[in-house]
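Posting this for the archive.
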Amino acid sequence: MQAARSEQQILSPTSWCDLPMGDWMATEIQSRLDLWCPHLFGYHLLKIGALSAELSCQTSTIRHQLSVAPAGRDLAMLAEVTELPVRCGSVDACLLAHTLDFCKDPHQALREAERVLTADGWIIITGYNPLSLVGLGKLLPWFRRRLPWSARMFTPGRVIDWLLLLGFEVMFDERFGYSLKGVHSMAGWWRESLGHDYCRSFSSVYMLAARKRRIPLQPVRKSWRVAPPLITPGMARTANRQG
């Protein structure tokens, strides 16, 4: 298993157009966002990463939506995803579209997202699955310096474990991308249908939605013990006699 943190330079996209089949992936992710975003409530939504900034969350009731990334288009803030210039517990939802794949320290990126989220806040994550047709390209050395094979690619199960350790509860888990040609051909449509039903572990793209859970601590109260009476029922009693 590869280490989560890496010091190597990672070739990162600044737009979905930079990725092979990027337009198709963005369309698939957007269709799921349109279904999931109505579950998001609050005042502030933060899109983390250049690819997240190009997606729409307008079906949510959250109207104040900002984007942050080191580079890209339609950004409100320029900053590293591992050092968000956002106050703790001030954001109601975070979107990380393939952000972990092109991040040197995905653990820290998740910790930052958890830090800025309010209690019961939502986080939506998408990424490449290494156990897929796309992941096979990383086995070829001359592909690793090209998009999308320059991505880190963590399995959905590993990302879910990270979320659970941070106190999240996974609410939605979607997989798609079982064909290199998408659904534009009849063979691609069949592969997508069969893969969705029988081969979820080998999808090229995963999409998770989780909710931050915080259980309030109950103070432990000291149990006071009432001192037992000096005289209990059944004991012999002596009367005080005055001489």
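The longest strand covers residues 117-128. The beta strands are 44-48, 64-69, 77-78, 91-97, 117-128, 168-176, 205-212.
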